[in-house]
Amino acid sequence: MIRARSLAATAAAVALASCGSLRNVPFVGAAGDYAQQKGVESALKVGENVVTAAATGELTKTATFSMEQEFWLGKTVAANVVGRLGGRALPPDHPAARYLRDVGTVVALAAAEQRTPQDRPYPMKGYRFIVVDTAQVNAVGMPGGFVAVTTGMLRSVRSEDELAAVVAHEVAHVQRGHVMFPVEKAREQEHMTSTLLAGTDEVVHAFFGKVVTVGADFVLDKGYGKANELEADAFAARILQGAGFDPQALGRVLGRLEGKAAEGGFFSRHPPAADRAAALGPRAPAGAAAAEARRAARFESRMRMLGGA
Amino acid sequence: MTTRGIALLAVLAAAAPDTVTVKREGARVMKGPRFFGDACRVEVRPGQQLRLVERRGGWARLAAPGDGKCWLHESAWSDRTAGELVGDPAAASQRDIELAGRGFSEAEEASYRSRHPGLARDFAIVDAYLAGAPETPSPELSAFCAEGALGGAR
Protein backbone atom coordinates (compact mmCIF):
# COMPACT_ATOMS: atom_id res chain seq x y z
CA MET A 1 0.00 0.00 0.00
CA ILE A 2 2.78 2.37 0.93
CA ARG A 3 4.69 1.51 -2.23
CA ALA A 4 1.62 1.99 -4.40
CA ARG A 5 0.95 5.31 -2.72
CA SER A 6 4.51 6.48 -3.30
CA LEU A 7 4.27 5.57 -6.95
CA ALA A 8 1.05 7.48 -7.24
CA ALA A 9 2.64 10.40 -5.45
CA THR A 10 5.57 10.38 -7.84
CA ALA A 11 3.22 10.31 -10.78
CA ALA A 12 1.23 13.19 -9.40
CA ALA A 13 4.37 15.22 -8.75
CA VAL A 14 5.67 14.62 -12.24
CA ALA A 15 2.30 15.54 -13.65
CA LEU A 16 2.31 18.75 -11.66
CA ALA A 17 5.80 19.66 -12.77
CA SER A 18 5.23 18.98 -16.43
CA CYS A 19 1.62 19.78 -17.22
CA GLY A 20 1.64 22.91 -19.31
CA SER A 21 -2.03 23.69 -18.88
CA LEU A 22 -1.81 23.50 -15.10
CA ARG A 23 1.01 26.03 -15.10
CA ASN A 24 -1.53 28.69 -16.01
CA VAL A 25 -3.56 27.96 -12.88
CA PRO A 26 -2.59 30.18 -9.93
CA PHE A 27 -0.07 28.50 -7.64
CA VAL A 28 0.08 25.30 -9.64
CA GLY A 29 2.64 26.76 -12.00
CA ALA A 30 4.65 27.77 -8.97
CA ALA A 31 4.43 24.18 -7.80
CA GLY A 32 6.15 23.03 -10.94
CA ASP A 33 8.93 25.53 -10.37
CA TYR A 34 9.16 24.47 -6.79
CA ALA A 35 9.41 20.83 -7.76
CA GLN A 36 12.20 21.63 -10.15
CA GLN A 37 14.02 23.75 -7.61
CA LYS A 38 13.75 21.60 -4.58
CA GLY A 39 14.19 18.25 -6.20
CA VAL A 40 12.50 14.93 -6.11
CA GLU A 41 12.19 14.73 -2.33
CA SER A 42 10.08 17.87 -2.13
CA ALA A 43 8.12 16.94 -5.20
CA LEU A 44 7.28 13.62 -3.61
CA LYS A 45 5.95 15.49 -0.63
CA VAL A 46 3.74 17.61 -2.86
CA GLY A 47 2.61 14.57 -4.75
CA GLU A 48 1.88 12.69 -1.55
CA ASN A 49 -0.35 15.53 -0.50
CA VAL A 50 -2.19 15.30 -3.80
CA VAL A 51 -2.89 11.66 -3.32
CA THR A 52 -3.82 11.99 0.33
CA ALA A 53 -6.12 14.93 -0.30
CA ALA A 54 -7.87 13.19 -3.16
CA ALA A 55 -8.19 9.95 -1.24
CA THR A 56 -9.69 11.54 1.84
CA GLY A 57 -11.92 14.00 0.03
CA GLU A 58 -10.29 16.99 1.71
CA LEU A 59 -10.50 19.12 -1.38
CA THR A 60 -13.99 20.37 -0.66
CA LYS A 61 -13.39 21.66 2.87
CA THR A 62 -13.46 25.25 3.99
CA ALA A 63 -11.94 26.50 7.20
CA THR A 64 -12.51 29.11 9.82
CA PHE A 65 -9.83 30.96 11.70
CA SER A 66 -8.92 31.50 15.31
CA MET A 67 -8.85 35.04 16.61
CA GLU A 68 -5.07 35.00 16.63
CA GLN A 69 -5.04 34.07 12.94
CA GLU A 70 -7.65 36.72 12.25
CA PHE A 71 -5.52 39.28 14.09
CA TRP A 72 -2.39 38.64 11.99
CA LEU A 73 -4.39 38.77 8.81
CA GLY A 74 -6.29 41.87 9.92
CA LYS A 75 -3.13 43.72 10.82
CA THR A 76 -1.72 43.27 7.33
CA VAL A 77 -5.05 44.17 5.74
CA ALA A 78 -5.10 47.30 7.92
CA ALA A 79 -1.64 48.33 6.72
CA ASN A 80 -2.79 47.89 3.13
CA VAL A 81 -5.97 49.88 3.74
CA VAL A 82 -4.02 52.71 5.39
CA GLY A 83 -1.68 52.71 2.43
CA ARG A 84 -4.47 52.76 -0.13
CA LEU A 85 -6.08 55.67 1.71
CA GLY A 86 -2.92 57.71 1.36
CA GLY A 87 -0.63 56.41 4.08
CA ARG A 88 -1.11 59.22 6.60
CA ALA A 89 -2.74 59.01 10.00
CA LEU A 90 -3.16 61.16 13.06
CA PRO A 91 -0.89 60.10 15.90
CA PRO A 92 -2.69 57.87 18.42
CA ASP A 93 -2.47 60.51 21.14
CA HIS A 94 -4.08 63.23 19.01
CA PRO A 95 -7.24 64.49 20.77
CA ALA A 96 -9.41 63.49 17.83
CA ALA A 97 -7.88 60.00 17.79
CA ARG A 98 -8.41 59.65 21.54
CA TYR A 99 -11.99 60.79 21.14
CA LEU A 100 -12.64 58.24 18.39
CA ARG A 101 -11.11 55.59 20.66
CA ASP A 102 -13.47 56.55 23.51
CA VAL A 103 -16.56 56.51 21.29
CA GLY A 104 -15.40 53.31 19.61
CA THR A 105 -14.79 51.55 22.91
CA VAL A 106 -18.33 52.33 24.09
CA VAL A 107 -19.69 51.00 20.81
CA ALA A 108 -17.54 47.86 20.85
CA LEU A 109 -18.55 46.96 24.40
CA ALA A 110 -22.23 47.60 23.70
CA ALA A 111 -21.89 45.26 20.71
CA ALA A 112 -20.16 42.60 22.81
CA GLU A 113 -23.01 42.69 25.33
CA GLN A 114 -25.34 41.67 22.49
CA ARG A 115 -23.09 38.93 21.18
CA THR A 116 -24.70 35.79 19.73
CA PRO A 117 -23.09 32.34 19.42
CA GLN A 118 -22.84 32.85 15.65
CA ASP A 119 -20.72 35.98 16.04
CA ARG A 120 -16.97 36.12 15.81
CA PRO A 121 -15.35 36.15 19.24
CA TYR A 122 -14.03 39.46 20.57
CA PRO A 123 -10.79 40.59 18.84
CA MET A 124 -7.73 39.07 20.47
CA LYS A 125 -6.12 42.43 21.25
CA GLY A 126 -9.35 44.39 21.41
CA TYR A 127 -10.37 46.99 18.83
CA ARG A 128 -8.06 49.60 17.38
CA PHE A 129 -9.63 52.76 15.97
CA ILE A 130 -7.27 54.42 13.52
CA VAL A 131 -7.78 57.96 12.21
CA VAL A 132 -6.50 58.06 8.62
CA ASP A 133 -5.74 61.57 7.46
CA THR A 134 -7.46 61.95 4.11
CA ALA A 135 -10.30 64.03 2.72
CA GLN A 136 -12.09 60.89 1.51
CA VAL A 137 -15.23 60.26 3.57
CA ASN A 138 -14.72 56.69 4.66
CA ALA A 139 -14.87 54.21 7.53
CA VAL A 140 -13.66 50.63 7.29
CA GLY A 141 -14.02 47.64 9.60
CA MET A 142 -11.39 44.95 9.17
CA PRO A 143 -10.55 41.49 10.48
CA GLY A 144 -8.96 41.44 13.91
CA GLY A 145 -10.92 44.46 15.17
CA PHE A 146 -9.10 47.15 13.20
CA VAL A 147 -11.41 50.05 12.32
CA ALA A 148 -10.19 52.96 10.20
CA VAL A 149 -12.10 56.24 10.13
CA THR A 150 -10.91 59.05 7.89
CA THR A 151 -10.60 62.68 8.88
CA GLY A 152 -12.97 63.30 5.96
CA MET A 153 -15.58 61.25 7.80
CA LEU A 154 -14.88 62.97 11.11
CA ARG A 155 -15.51 66.30 9.41
CA SER A 156 -18.69 65.05 7.74
CA VAL A 157 -20.56 63.72 10.76
CA ARG A 158 -22.30 66.39 12.83
CA SER A 159 -22.51 64.86 16.26
CA GLU A 160 -21.07 62.21 18.55
CA ASP A 161 -24.15 60.08 17.91
CA GLU A 162 -23.55 60.19 14.16
CA LEU A 163 -19.91 59.27 14.66
CA ALA A 164 -20.95 56.41 16.95
CA ALA A 165 -23.43 55.28 14.31
CA VAL A 166 -20.75 55.03 11.62
CA VAL A 167 -18.44 53.16 14.00
CA ALA A 168 -21.28 50.87 15.12
CA HIS A 169 -21.94 49.89 11.52
CA GLU A 170 -18.29 48.89 11.07
CA VAL A 171 -18.11 47.09 14.43
CA ALA A 172 -21.25 45.20 13.39
CA HIS A 173 -19.44 43.99 10.26
CA VAL A 174 -16.51 42.84 12.41
CA GLN A 175 -18.57 41.09 15.08
CA ARG A 176 -20.98 39.45 12.65
CA GLY A 177 -17.98 38.08 10.76
CA HIS A 178 -18.76 39.84 7.47
CA VAL A 179 -15.15 41.01 7.26
CA MET A 180 -14.04 37.38 7.20
CA PHE A 181 -16.47 36.27 4.48
CA PRO A 182 -14.14 37.19 1.60
CA VAL A 183 -11.30 35.50 3.43
CA GLU A 184 -13.35 32.36 3.86
CA LYS A 185 -14.29 32.54 0.20
CA ALA A 186 -10.68 32.92 -0.82
CA ARG A 187 -9.75 29.98 1.36
CA GLU A 188 -12.53 27.95 -0.19
CA GLN A 189 -11.40 28.80 -3.70
CA GLU A 190 -7.77 28.17 -3.00
CA HIS A 191 -8.19 25.26 -0.68
CA MET A 192 -7.62 22.70 -3.37
CA THR A 193 -4.39 24.18 -4.58
CA SER A 194 -3.16 25.02 -1.10
CA THR A 195 -3.88 21.47 -0.05
CA LEU A 196 -2.18 20.14 -3.13
CA LEU A 197 0.89 22.21 -2.42
CA ALA A 198 1.13 21.87 1.32
CA GLY A 199 4.67 22.06 2.53
CA THR A 200 5.83 24.78 0.18
CA ASP A 201 6.40 28.10 1.91
CA GLU A 202 6.15 30.02 -1.33
CA VAL A 203 2.58 28.86 -1.76
CA VAL A 204 1.69 29.89 1.77
CA HIS A 205 3.23 33.32 1.15
CA ALA A 206 1.34 33.66 -2.11
CA PHE A 207 -1.92 32.59 -0.51
CA PHE A 208 -1.52 35.03 2.37
CA GLY A 209 -0.75 37.84 -0.05
CA LYS A 210 -3.78 37.03 -2.13
CA VAL A 211 -6.08 36.95 0.89
CA VAL A 212 -4.73 40.31 2.05
CA THR A 213 -5.42 41.80 -1.36
CA VAL A 214 -8.89 40.27 -1.53
CA GLY A 215 -9.63 41.43 2.00
CA ALA A 216 -8.54 45.02 1.32
CA ASP A 217 -10.55 45.05 -1.92
CA PHE A 218 -13.68 43.98 -0.11
CA VAL A 219 -13.47 46.32 2.86
CA LEU A 220 -12.55 49.35 0.74
CA ASP A 221 -14.34 48.91 -2.55
CA LYS A 222 -16.69 45.98 -2.88
CA GLY A 223 -18.52 45.88 0.42
CA TYR A 224 -20.30 42.84 1.75
CA GLY A 225 -23.49 42.83 -0.29
CA LYS A 226 -26.88 44.38 0.38
CA ALA A 227 -28.09 41.75 2.84
CA ASN A 228 -25.01 42.05 5.04
CA GLU A 229 -25.08 45.85 4.87
CA LEU A 230 -28.70 45.87 6.01
CA GLU A 231 -27.89 43.37 8.75
CA ALA A 232 -25.05 45.62 9.90
CA ASP A 233 -27.46 48.58 9.92
CA ALA A 234 -29.98 46.72 12.03
CA PHE A 235 -27.33 45.51 14.47
CA ALA A 236 -25.79 48.99 14.60
CA ALA A 237 -29.16 50.41 15.63
CA ARG A 238 -29.33 47.92 18.52
CA ILE A 239 -25.74 48.69 19.51
CA LEU A 240 -26.50 52.40 19.58
CA GLN A 241 -29.62 51.86 21.64
CA GLY A 242 -27.77 49.60 24.07
CA ALA A 243 -25.00 52.14 24.51
CA GLY A 244 -27.37 55.08 24.96
CA PHE A 245 -26.86 56.78 21.60
CA ASP A 246 -29.71 57.73 19.29
CA PRO A 247 -30.45 54.67 17.10
CA GLN A 248 -31.66 56.97 14.33
CA ALA A 249 -28.29 58.67 14.01
CA LEU A 250 -27.12 56.25 11.32
CA GLY A 251 -30.18 57.02 9.20
CA ARG A 252 -29.47 60.72 9.51
CA VAL A 253 -25.85 60.51 8.45
CA LEU A 254 -26.55 58.11 5.62
CA GLY A 255 -29.40 60.19 4.27
CA ARG A 256 -27.48 63.43 4.43
CA LEU A 257 -24.28 62.12 2.86
CA GLU A 258 -25.76 59.77 0.31
CA GLY A 259 -24.60 62.07 -2.46
CA LYS A 260 -21.02 61.16 -1.52
CA ALA A 261 -21.51 57.73 -3.08
CA ALA A 262 -20.15 58.94 -6.38
CA GLU A 263 -16.86 59.81 -4.66
CA GLY A 264 -16.27 56.22 -3.57
CA GLY A 265 -15.66 55.01 -0.03
CA PHE A 266 -18.18 54.30 2.71
CA PHE A 267 -21.30 55.47 0.89
CA SER A 268 -20.51 53.85 -2.45
CA ARG A 269 -20.47 50.41 -0.78
CA HIS A 270 -23.88 50.75 0.79
CA PRO A 271 -27.47 50.41 -0.43
CA PRO A 272 -29.52 53.59 -0.95
CA ALA A 273 -30.85 55.14 2.26
CA ALA A 274 -34.42 54.46 1.19
CA ASP A 275 -33.67 50.71 1.20
CA ARG A 276 -32.33 50.77 4.72
CA ALA A 277 -34.87 52.85 6.60
CA ALA A 278 -36.61 49.77 7.96
CA ALA A 279 -33.37 48.42 9.39
CA LEU A 280 -32.49 51.50 11.36
CA GLY A 281 -34.49 50.77 14.46
CA PRO A 282 -36.51 52.73 16.96
CA ARG A 283 -36.35 56.40 17.73
CA ALA A 284 -34.47 57.68 20.76
CA PRO A 285 -36.54 57.63 23.97
CA ALA A 286 -38.17 60.79 25.20
CA GLY A 287 -35.81 62.93 27.24
CA ALA A 288 -32.75 61.79 25.35
CA ALA A 289 -32.35 65.10 23.56
CA ALA A 290 -30.63 66.78 26.50
CA ALA A 291 -28.07 63.99 26.77
CA GLU A 292 -27.44 64.06 23.05
CA ALA A 293 -26.90 67.81 23.24
CA ARG A 294 -24.19 67.28 25.89
CA ARG A 295 -22.48 64.75 23.63
CA ALA A 296 -22.80 67.10 20.70
CA ALA A 297 -21.03 69.79 22.70
CA ARG A 298 -18.02 67.62 23.48
CA PHE A 299 -18.00 66.45 19.87
CA GLU A 300 -17.70 70.08 18.79
CA SER A 301 -14.82 70.69 21.17
CA ARG A 302 -12.90 67.59 20.02
CA MET A 303 -13.49 68.27 16.34
CA ARG A 304 -12.09 71.75 16.75
CA MET A 305 -8.80 70.03 17.59
CA LEU A 306 -8.93 68.44 14.15
CA GLY A 307 -8.41 71.80 12.47
CA GLY A 308 -8.80 72.41 8.75
CA ALA A 309 -11.97 72.81 6.73
CA MET B 1 -38.96 14.59 39.89
CA THR B 2 -40.57 17.25 42.03
CA THR B 3 -40.53 20.92 41.26
CA ARG B 4 -38.27 21.42 44.27
CA GLY B 5 -35.88 18.79 42.93
CA ILE B 6 -35.72 20.44 39.55
CA ALA B 7 -35.08 23.79 41.17
CA LEU B 8 -32.30 22.28 43.30
CA LEU B 9 -30.66 20.79 40.22
CA ALA B 10 -30.87 24.14 38.47
CA VAL B 11 -29.22 25.85 41.42
CA LEU B 12 -26.49 23.21 41.56
CA ALA B 13 -25.91 23.52 37.81
CA ALA B 14 -25.66 27.27 38.07
CA ALA B 15 -23.19 26.95 40.93
CA ALA B 16 -21.12 24.20 39.33
CA PRO B 17 -17.43 25.03 39.06
CA ASP B 18 -16.28 25.72 35.58
CA THR B 19 -12.82 26.61 34.37
CA VAL B 20 -11.92 28.79 31.39
CA THR B 21 -8.68 30.09 29.93
CA VAL B 22 -8.34 33.79 29.12
CA LYS B 23 -7.67 34.24 25.40
CA ARG B 24 -7.44 37.95 24.82
CA GLU B 25 -5.62 41.01 26.08
CA GLY B 26 -7.23 43.82 28.02
CA ALA B 27 -10.25 41.86 29.22
CA ARG B 28 -12.31 43.93 31.64
CA VAL B 29 -13.05 42.55 35.10
CA MET B 30 -16.17 44.25 36.39
CA LYS B 31 -17.98 44.53 39.73
CA GLY B 32 -21.23 43.47 38.07
CA PRO B 33 -22.27 41.57 34.95
CA ARG B 34 -22.04 44.65 32.71
CA PHE B 35 -19.30 46.40 30.77
CA PHE B 36 -20.60 49.80 31.79
CA GLY B 37 -20.02 50.31 35.48
CA ASP B 38 -17.33 49.98 38.09
CA ALA B 39 -14.34 47.79 37.31
CA CYS B 40 -12.59 45.55 39.83
CA ARG B 41 -9.01 46.55 40.58
CA VAL B 42 -7.66 43.25 39.33
CA GLU B 43 -6.30 42.04 36.01
CA VAL B 44 -6.50 38.81 34.06
CA ARG B 45 -3.98 37.85 31.40
CA PRO B 46 -4.04 35.66 28.29
CA GLY B 47 -3.36 32.07 29.27
CA GLN B 48 -4.59 32.52 32.82
CA GLN B 49 -7.00 29.82 34.00
CA LEU B 50 -10.01 31.02 35.95
CA ARG B 51 -12.59 29.13 37.96
CA LEU B 52 -16.14 30.34 37.50
CA VAL B 53 -18.65 30.13 40.29
CA GLU B 54 -21.73 31.53 38.59
CA ARG B 55 -22.89 32.26 35.07
CA ARG B 56 -25.40 34.93 34.14
CA GLY B 57 -26.10 35.61 30.49
CA GLY B 58 -22.76 36.04 28.78
CA TRP B 59 -21.05 36.80 32.09
CA ALA B 60 -19.41 34.69 34.76
CA ARG B 61 -18.48 35.46 38.37
CA LEU B 62 -14.91 34.50 39.16
CA ALA B 63 -13.73 32.58 42.18
CA ALA B 64 -10.52 34.60 41.91
CA PRO B 65 -9.15 37.15 41.45
CA GLY B 66 -11.53 39.39 43.32
CA ASP B 67 -12.69 37.07 46.11
CA GLY B 68 -15.79 36.00 44.25
CA LYS B 69 -16.99 39.56 43.69
CA CYS B 70 -15.81 40.16 40.15
CA TRP B 71 -17.33 39.34 36.79
CA LEU B 72 -15.81 38.54 33.41
CA HIS B 73 -17.57 38.50 30.05
CA GLU B 74 -17.35 35.41 27.86
CA SER B 75 -15.65 37.48 25.18
CA ALA B 76 -12.52 37.18 27.33
CA TRP B 77 -12.21 33.47 26.78
CA SER B 78 -14.25 32.58 23.70
CA ASP B 79 -12.34 31.73 20.53
CA ARG B 80 -12.43 29.53 17.49
CA THR B 81 -10.10 26.57 17.52
CA ALA B 82 -7.29 27.19 15.08
CA GLY B 83 -8.18 25.42 11.88
CA GLU B 84 -11.69 24.65 13.02
CA LEU B 85 -13.61 23.40 10.03
CA VAL B 86 -16.90 24.44 8.60
CA GLY B 87 -19.00 21.59 7.31
CA ASP B 88 -18.47 18.13 8.67
CA PRO B 89 -15.77 18.27 11.36
CA ALA B 90 -15.94 14.50 11.77
CA ALA B 91 -14.62 14.09 8.25
CA ALA B 92 -11.64 16.39 8.79
CA SER B 93 -8.19 14.89 8.84
CA GLN B 94 -5.32 16.15 10.95
CA ARG B 95 -3.68 17.38 7.76
CA ASP B 96 -6.74 19.44 6.88
CA ILE B 97 -6.77 21.01 10.31
CA GLU B 98 -3.09 21.85 10.11
CA LEU B 99 -3.49 23.35 6.66
CA ALA B 100 -6.48 25.45 7.64
CA GLY B 101 -4.44 27.74 9.82
CA ARG B 102 -1.30 27.96 7.74
CA GLY B 103 -0.24 31.36 6.56
CA PHE B 104 -1.95 33.47 9.22
CA SER B 105 0.76 34.01 11.77
CA GLU B 106 3.28 36.52 13.06
CA ALA B 107 5.97 34.82 10.98
CA GLU B 108 3.86 35.18 7.85
CA GLU B 109 3.32 38.86 8.55
CA ALA B 110 7.08 39.31 8.90
CA SER B 111 7.60 37.56 5.59
CA TYR B 112 4.94 39.72 3.94
CA ARG B 113 6.54 42.90 5.27
CA SER B 114 9.94 41.90 3.95
CA ARG B 115 8.43 41.33 0.51
CA HIS B 116 6.49 44.64 0.57
CA PRO B 117 8.94 47.28 1.81
CA GLY B 118 6.73 49.99 0.34
CA LEU B 119 4.24 49.32 3.12
CA ALA B 120 6.74 50.05 5.91
CA ARG B 121 5.18 53.43 6.77
CA ASP B 122 1.68 51.92 6.77
CA PHE B 123 2.70 49.08 9.05
CA ALA B 124 4.37 51.64 11.32
CA ILE B 125 1.04 53.46 11.65
CA VAL B 126 -0.77 50.26 12.57
CA ASP B 127 2.00 49.32 15.02
CA ALA B 128 1.78 52.75 16.63
CA TYR B 129 -1.95 52.34 17.22
CA LEU B 130 -1.47 48.82 18.55
CA ALA B 131 1.13 50.04 21.03
CA GLY B 132 -0.37 53.39 21.91
CA ALA B 133 -4.12 53.24 21.50
CA PRO B 134 -5.64 50.27 23.29
CA GLU B 135 -9.34 50.51 24.09
CA THR B 136 -10.18 53.12 26.69
CA PRO B 137 -9.46 51.76 30.21
CA SER B 138 -12.48 51.26 32.47
CA PRO B 139 -11.96 54.22 34.84
CA GLU B 140 -11.62 56.66 31.94
CA LEU B 141 -14.51 55.01 30.16
CA SER B 142 -16.76 55.43 33.20
CA ALA B 143 -16.04 59.14 33.25
CA PHE B 144 -16.64 59.40 29.50
CA CYS B 145 -19.97 57.58 29.83
CA ALA B 146 -21.05 59.66 32.81
CA GLU B 147 -20.34 62.89 30.98
CA GLY B 148 -22.28 61.77 27.92
CA ALA B 149 -25.07 59.86 29.67
CA LEU B 150 -24.00 56.62 28.01
CA GLY B 151 -23.91 52.97 29.04
CA GLY B 152 -26.74 53.27 31.52
CA ALA B 153 -25.37 56.46 33.10
CA ARG B 154 -28.60 58.24 32.26
Question: What does this molecule look like?
Answer:
The complex is a heterodimer of chains A (309) and B (154). Chain A has helices at residues 2-18, 28-56, 67-84, 95-112, 151-156, 160-176, 181-196, 201-222, 226-243, 249-257, 273-276, 288-304; strands at residues 62-63, 128-132, 139-141, 146-150. Chain A is mainly alpha-helical and 309 residues long. Chain A folds into two domains: 1-60, no CATH class; 70-180 and 220-304, no CATH class. Chain A is globular. Chain B has one domain (3-148): SH3 Domains (SH3 type barrels), CATH 2.30.30. Chain B is 35% helix and 15% strand. Chain B has 154 residues and is an alpha+beta fold. Chain B contains five helices and six strands; from the N terminus they run αββββββαααα. At the A-B interface, helix 2, strand 1, helix 3, helix 4 and strand 2 of A face strand 6, helix 2, helix 3, helix 4 and helix 5 of B. Strand 1 of chain A pairs antiparallel with strand 6 of chain B.
Question: What order do the helices and strands come in, and which of them pair?
Answer:
The complex is a heterodimer of chains A (about 300) and B (about 150).
Chain A: H1 2-18, H2 28-56, E1 62-63, H3 67-84, H4 95-112, E2 128-132, E3 139-141, E4 146-150, H5 151-156, H6 160-176, H7 181-196, H8 201-222, H9 226-243, H10 249-257, H11 273-276, H12 288-304
Parallel strand pairs in A: 2-4
Antiparallel strand pairs in A: 3-4
Chain B: H1 3-15, E1 18-21, E2 29-30, E3 49-56, E4 59-62, E5 71-73, E6 85-86, H2 94-100, H3 106-115, H4 120-132, H5 138-148
Antiparallel strand pairs in B: 1-3, 2-5, 3-4, 4-5
Summary of the model, kept short:
The complex is a heterodimer of chains A (309) and B (154). Chain A has helices at 2-18, 28-56, 67-84, 95-112, 151-156, 160-176, 181-196, 201-222, 226-243, 249-257, 273-276, 288-304; strands at 62-63, 128-132, 139-141, 146-150.
Number of structural units classed as domains of chain A: 2
Number of helices of chain A: 12
CATH-wise, what's the superfamily of chain B? SH3 Domains
CATH class value of chain B: Mainly Beta
Largest sheet of chain A: 3 strands, mixed
Helical stretch count of chain B?
Answer: 5
CATH architecture annotation of chain B: Roll
- Overall pLDDT of chain A: 76
* Helix-strand category of chain B: alpha+beta
The total domain count of chain B is 1
Largest interface: A-B, 76 and 69 residues
Q: What radius of gyration of chain A results from the CA coordinates?
A: 23 Å
Oligomer: heterodimer
Average pLDDT of chain B, rounded to a whole number, is 83
